[in-house]
Amino acid sequence: TRVMAEKAKLRTIIDKHGGVSAVAAKTGIPQPSLSRMLNSASIPRRTTMYRIAKALKLSETDIAMEWTR
Predict the structure, then answer these.
(1) Please, is 17 exposed, middle or buried when counting C-beta atoms within 10 Å of its C-beta (0-12, 13-18, 19+)?
(2) Residue 68 DSSP SS3
(3) Are 28 and 51 in contact (CB under 8 A)?
(4) E strand segments, 1-66
(5) What is the mean pLDDT of residues 53-65?
């Protein structure tokens, strides 16, 4: 699905920043929750995407997808 394709791009960004565990620690999002979000077809919350962008010092538009709820 399109959501999973966008999440694959996000996963690449997360991997460049040390992986799920490192990004989870930086964002304060529990690692299991972050993994579940990346591996499910559900649409992530905008607040979750914002926390990831902020922790990785990216603009929200770098990782936010138009399907974010």
Answers:
(1) middle
(2) coil
(3) yes
(4) none
(5) 83
User: How many other C-beta atoms can be found within 10 angstroms of the C-beta atom of residue 15?
Assistant: 12
- The predicted model scores a pTM of 0.84
Cα(45)–Cα(29) distance, rounded to whole angstroms? 12
Percent of the chain with pLDDT over 70: 91
Are 68 and 18 in contact by the 8 Å Cβ rule? The answer is: no
Buried b vs exposed e over 26-38: b needs ≥16 C-beta within 10 Å? bbebeeeebeebb
* Helix, strand, or coil (residue 34): helix
Task: Tell me the two tokens of residue 18.
Answer: 């040390």
Site of tokens 């991997």: 15
